[in-house]
Amino acid sequence: MNPLPPKDPEGAGRDSRRYASNRPKPNRTIRRLVIWYRRNAAVTSLVGTATATASGAASGAASGAVSVAGSMAGAATNVAGSVLQPLVFDPLRRLQQGAHTGGGINDRQRLWVAVDGMGGDHAPGPILEGCLRAVGLLPLRIRFVAEPEPLRQAVAAMGLGHELEEAVQRGLIELVPSGPTVGMHEEATVVRRKRDASINVAMDLVKKGEATAVYSAGNSGAVMAAAIFRLGRLAGIDRPAIGALFPTKDPSQQVLVLDVGANMDCKPEWLHQFALLGNIYSRDVLQVKRPRIGLVNIGEEECKGNDLCLRTHPLLAGDERFVFAGNCEGRDILSGDFDVVVCDGFTGNVLLKFLESVGSVLLDVLRAELPRGRRGKVGSAFLRSNLVRIKKRLDHAEHGGALLLGVDGICVIGHGSSRALSVVSALRLAHSAASHGVMDDLHALGEGSAGVATTCG
């Protein structure tokens, strides 16, 4: 029988204990982060950020712990990306996916769009930046109308000189000089005095056929006045309306609300005309086969509402050119049960401004309700970007612009605070309206409904 080796040869026990004491232990914070991720799959769309955070937190630890934590976080990243990616609404990503990236953009298919470069709170720099992005993503050519000196200063300040020069050489952007612009707080009628203002020059380009659409993030009243004075109204349409897209609970569906500010006091026949305009817009631009039209009211019953709603309801119900889905209560506007909702401009503007505040208020409420302490701080770090994305999904300014319907031309009005992303979204909207022949159908509507408006009184 062979004798067993001594349990602790001289020096071996001390070395093994020393090795065990020096062995790197997995960082407890990293383990907790990984467990937190696994238990909170609803927020793991930002696991990529967590991986970097975990690696940074473990920089002082041994390489073995970092390797284990990194591999576990990487696996969670893959799961999160496949599960949560469809739930994230990123306007720029949607634009990039919708762009003609397969075989490049055919320059012969590009459409000219006139852009009011001086319109907006931050113009002309961010507007030009958005245009430079748009010509790379969309089949567009842009005639950028702006005052030369402010444009030169903005280009130098933002470092857009090389990119702009390249776009001009390729024929994607053409700079059109203009005179003094219309201020954001000036009266709408000032467009009659400032004949060479950027918005007037841009409208004239559409009227002359040198552009298929016009976009402006400037004074909305001035934009509407310039459109009426320069482009004119469609036949059979008494008042143009501003149509804005609201998000619904379905990320792939939006509802068109009009009017959202062009006409504070409306007549029943005007709301009827808004429904006709919205039906064509939703069908041609949003590609809804049979848009469902709703009338904003305080109840679903026909007998409810003010005098305007009571007189408008039979007009909408009796028109066979669209599908009238009945009255739409405030809680149903974002439900996805309606594709077009009509109301007077006062009500629509209140709805629009309320929706603009929902995103920021929701973010503040969630921040206040998150748990305090170390655990709450960890959760907040991972939730922050998700909450910002939720806010953007509910923020109308992130959805591009609104179409001015009822004028003889495609006119997109952007939010006054528009920056590059909103400009790209609005230009995509303008291109979609121009390429789907919406003006042809609107002209046909005007020719066929000239007598309809007179029978609604």
Keywords:
single chain, 457 residues, alpha/beta, 16 helices, 11 strands, 48% helix, 13% strand, disordered C terminus
Number of helices: 16
Q: State the low-pLDDT regions, or none.
A: 16-21, 41-103, 450-457
**Strand runs, count:** 11
Q: What level of helicity do the residues show?
A: 40-55%
Main sheet characteristics: 11 strands, mixed
Structural class comes to: alpha/beta
Radius of gyration: 29 Å
Structure, explained:
This protein is 48% helix and 13% strand. An eleven-stranded mixed sheet has the order 3-2-1-4-11-10-5-6-9-7-8, sandwiched between helices. The N and C termini lie far apart (116 Å). It is α/β, with parallel strands linked by helices and 457 residues long. It has helices spanning 12-22, 28-39, 47-57, 63-84, 91-98, 125-137, 148-158, 161-169, 198-207, 220-230, 268-284, 307-317, 345-369, 373-394, 420-435, 438-448; strands at residues 111-116, 140-146, 173-177, 213-216, 241-247, 254-258, 292-296, 323-328, 340-342, 401-405, 410-414. The protein has 16 helices and eleven strands.
Short description:
With 457 residues, the protein is an alpha/beta fold.
Topology:
Layout: H1 12-22, H2 28-39, H3 47-57, H4 63-84, H5 91-98, E1 111-116, H6 125-137, E2 140-146, H7 148-158, H8 161-169, E3 173-177, H9 198-207, E4 213-216, H10 220-230, E5 241-247, E6 254-258, H11 268-284, E7 292-296, H12 307-317, E8 323-328, E9 340-342, H13 345-369, H14 373-394, E10 401-405, E11 410-414, H15 420-435, H16 438-448
Parallel strand pairs: 1-2, 1-4, 2-3, 4-11, 6-9, 7-8, 7-9
Antiparallel strand pairs: 5-6, 5-10, 10-11
Helix pairs in contact: 2-3, 2-4, 3-4, 6-15, 9-10, 11-12, 11-16, 13-14
